[in-house]
Amino acid sequence: MTTFDLFTLALLIVALGLGALTLVRLAARRSRRRRPGAGTEAAGSEYHRSHTQSREQERDLLQQIEALQRWQSQARALWEVLEAASTQADFPAALRTAAERLDQELALSHVLVADASRQDIHLIVAPARLSARDALQALMEEPNPLRAARDLKGPLVLSDLRRDEAWSRSPLLRVLQAASAVILPLHLDDGWSGVLLLVRGAGDPPFEPECADLYAHFGGQLAATLAKTRMLHRATQRLTVGTQDLEREHERTETLLRITSELSSSLDLEHVLDRALALVIDAVGADRGVILLPSSERDVLILRAQLGADEPLPHGGRPAPFKHDEGLAGWVIAHRQPVIIPDLTRDERWIPYSDPIAEHKSALAVPLLVSEDALGALLLLSHRRGAFDEGQLSLVTAAANQVAAAINNAELYRLIRDQAERLGSMLRAQQVEASKSRAILESIADGVIVTDPDHRVVLFNSAAERILGLKRDEALGRPAVDFIGLYGPAGRRWVAAVQGWSQTPPQAGADQALLDERLMLEDERVVSVHLAPVVFEKDFLGTVSIFRDITREVELDRLKSEFVATVSHELRTPMTSIKGYVEVLLMGAVGPLSDEQRRFLEIIKTNTDRLGILVNDLLDVSRIEAGKIHLTMQRLRVEDLVREARAYIERRIAEESKPMHVHLDLPGGLPHVRGDPERVRQVITNLVDNSFNYTPAGGNITLRARLRNGEVEIEVADDGIGIPPTDQDRVFERFFRGEQALDMAVAGTGLGLSIVKQLVEMHGGRIWMTSEGAPGEGTTFTFTLPIAEGIPATIGAED
Amino acid sequence: MPKILIAEDERDIRDLIAFTLRFNGYEVVAARDGEQALTLVAAEQPDLVLLDVRMPRMTGYEVCRRIKTDKSMHHIPVVFLSAKGQESEVQAGMEAGAADYILKPFSPSELIERVTALIGS
């Protein structure tokens, strides 16, 4: 059952109840009129007493029945009116319908409906069959039933206007030629009030005062119906407005969606900007649109997209002929806020740079913002003044945000792509490099074995297969210790070194981390192993071993040594004769000599000595190279070594009559050193010989020794001719002799320092020299020897 | 006058040694090879033997060993005079029982010093 059905039913019930009530009232009034003070029962007894009275009573009853019938028909008519009004959805229509139906159902001469909410009278339903001018005139004047309704709670029934002093003077009622009237106020819950004026003329039956309750009730019901209609109407209106909003919003969203999808469909910035601009122009109906972005130097704005201009933009855009902070675009970017300019001619921000004929009259400009950063500006222009409104501004702002995001995305994409390309090419380069390195390692003539930190073989090249006589498959992945132990003591040292490094990673680039060994294979081949740790940022990554078959080289070395030994031996025999006989002659054993004879013989002797040194040096060199010198290591007192050297040089000073000053700088408590006494003597002697030879008479030679960094440094310094800087790198080279040495005609082979260096290094020491290269500044040679371990230092050595 | 036996296959050097020693007051017996040296040592019983190492027929080492293992000769000091100056060679000489090892080329004065040190002048 609908609300309306319920309402109708309730109305019927009320109408019937009211009808019955009215009927009883009518009867009571009539009996009171006949017999004042008598009750209903008395009236009934009178009926039996008088026949005349009975007829009167009969007539009364008939009248009552007629009245009841009129009332009933009125009630039905009013109900019809209500029903008709309630079917109208529109409030004014409902009022009009109610008026029309009242006019018909109640046989009215006029019906008026006015809005009583307002001060001045506003007619909703004007009186029919009356000239508007007459009505208007009458409406203005008092007493006015329409205005009076405002203060009425219920209906006012004026059944006979001729007898009504007040209302008979009403101009409106006169104009309407009213004989009787009902003023029916309508008060709605929502505060609206109105009035219905029902008018009957002289020929019509007058409104009955008895029906006042009926009108009152009708008024209440009509007001309720109207209130509902009004509510419905308002709701519908709101709905309509809401729907329109929704449609606008929908359009806006669609435009944005199109922009968004256009923007996301391409990462090509030019295309994206063109499409976005086209959609925005289309959405707001602009004549021209441009997008400006700052140049990479940010000093000028670049016109990156434009629509509505004749000439197309070159790829990458065209610089705008004004600076980045000038013009409308510059203002929008600088202030980061959008602006509508309804009249460009009155705005200073506008620079009509490409608009000489001022064809554009209004503009809308928005910044392209990505989180507070203005990436550029979007400008829309129109030929009309005031072409843009706030709604368009908000749409364009939203679109601009999308465009800004797209620009940002394109920029990000470009960055990521560049980065990816760079990384990719780096990776490719590395791969190529790695392949190259591998190919190089594979094709190298030396055997290469690479192990990981767990000593497992990760690379084993074909040369290693050939040299070691092992198949790659047998070696790869296996711990090196499994097979390298096959190669004797040297192989075991090799494994020990690898294991040691994995426990305490050696310093990168440290020389002592290298291991040079010779492996003697079963087939008498000799293989040299050069082992180095691979250290990267303190991490031990593994080892690289280089193997080289040096069997031939070793054999050649042996032959060379033999040859040198034979040659030097064969040289000694004639030298023995020359040296011996010259000396015999010099001794005067075969007769006295003239001064000249003695001088010449001395020359022969000196040169024979020189030849002897050369032969000895050659032998030393060849034996060092052949590894035939074996050091017999002993604990040596540094003081003894230095004092011996001083004694030696003082002997030379005396023998050769060349006065020199020899100084000793020996701190107490130097530890013993570890060395082969003969070879250490050879080293020191060689150095003091050099000092003696290359320092003029009267010069100084200083012998020093000191403890430093766990080694003993022994130093031979002089203030002789020095070594020029250009020669300093070469003094330890074999056969190198400086120009000065040659000028001074000092006997020498150029082998001495080379032998000294090799001997020092065989002891595990180092040797170096310093010289200013200027005569008188002299030269200082320093070499180190390891400390003999486990031996207490000699304390209190005196000088 | 102390008697010294010299064994040297090179005649120039043999003459040089003999001259130097005689000039310094020693009696000299000279041999040209190892075998002759051994025979002469046994026969002459010198105060000192100077041996070259590399000689025909018998090396100086062998001559030295034989002298040192012969009761009639083992008291006679032996000195090598050799162009072979490597440690191993010097060591071999000393192990054969030599009292000294003089390297060629030597100077006559040094030779006399070493000889005097062993048997006096």
Topology:
The complex is a heterodimer of chains A (799) and B (121).
Chain A: H1 3-34, H2 40-49, H3 51-86, H4 91-105, E1 110-115, E2 122-125, H5 132-139, H6 145-148, E3 156-158, H7 171-175, E4 180-187, E5 193-200, H8 212-264, H9 269-284, E6 288-294, E7 300-307, E8 318-323, H10 327-335, E9 339-341, E10 362-370, E11 373-382, H11 390-443, E12 447-451, E13 457-460, H12 462-468, H13 472-475, H14 481-484, H15 488-503, E14 515-520, E15 526-536, E16 539-549, H16 551-586, H17 595-625, E17 634-636, H18 638-655, E18 661-665, E19 673-675, H19 677-693, E20 700-708, E21 711-718, H20 725-728, H21 739-743, H22 752-762, E22 767-771, E23 779-786
Parallel strand pairs in A: 18-20
Antiparallel strand pairs in A: 1-2, 1-5, 3-4, 4-5, 6-7, 6-11, 7-8, 9-10, 10-11, 12-13, 12-16, 14-15, 15-16, 17-19, 20-21, 21-23, 22-23
Chain B: E1 3-7, H1 11-23, E2 27-31, H2 34-44, E3 48-52, H3 60-69, E4 78-82, H4 87-95, E5 100-103, H5 108-119
Helix pairs in contact in B: 2-3
* Topology pattern of chain B, helix = H, strand = E: EHEHEHEHEH
Overall outline of chain A: rod-shaped
Uncertain stretches of 5 or more adjacent residues of chain B: none
| Total helical segments of chain B | 5
Straight-line N-to-C gap of chain A: 135 Å
Termini Cα gap of chain B: 8 Å
Mean pLDDT of chain A: 79
Task: Report the β-strand fraction of chain B as a percent range.
Answer: 15-25%
The helix fraction of chain A, in percent, is 40-55%
| Structure summary, number of beta strands of chain A | 23
Category from helices, strands and their pairing of chain A: alpha+beta
Sheet with most strands of chain A: 6 strands, antiparallel
Order of neighbouring strands in the sheet with most strands of chain A: 8-7-6-11-10-9
CATH topology of chain B: Rossmann fold
Rg result of chain A:
65 Å
Largest interface: A-B, 22 and 19 residues
